[in-house]
Amino acid sequence: MSTNEKPISIADAISPVPVEPTGNVEAWHLEKIGQRHKAADEGHFVAAADVQAVIRKFVPDE
């Protein structure tokens, strides 16, 4: 560190840097929702066994 640089606090050093979205996130989200609705209207659904497998992965049997 050179002598003309201002030292930063520990809190500033470990804080995440705010990141601005690079595109229109809301428009992307609405587009994805529209695609999912269209797929559902066409009858494209996940099999019940696949849903159960994902649930079992995160919720163990008691």
Report what the structure shows.
- It is built from three helices and no strands.
- With 62 residues, the protein is an all-alpha fold.
- The radius of gyration is 23 Å and the shape is elongated.
- The mean pLDDT is 85.
- The longest helix is centred in the middle third of the chain and has 17 residues, at 25-41.
- The chain has one domain.
- The chain has helices spanning 10-14, 25-41, 48-58.
Per-chain topology:
Blueprint: H1 10-14, H2 25-41, H3 48-58
What are its keywords?
about 60 residues, mainly alpha, about 0% strand, elongated
Shape, per Cα inertia axes = elongated
| Helix and strand pattern | HHH
Tally of separate helices: 3
Query: Structural class of the secondary structure composition?
Result: mainly alpha
Number of DSSP-assigned strands: 0
Name the helicity range: 40-55%
Q: What's the number of domains?
A: 1
List low-confidence stretches. none
Q: Approximately how much beta-strand content do the residues carry?
A: under 5%
**What is the distance, rounded to the nearest whole angstrom, between the alpha carbons of the first and last residues?**
56 Å
Q: Overall pLDDT, averaged?
A: 85
Largest sheet: none
Cα-atom Rg, whole angstroms?
A: 23 Å
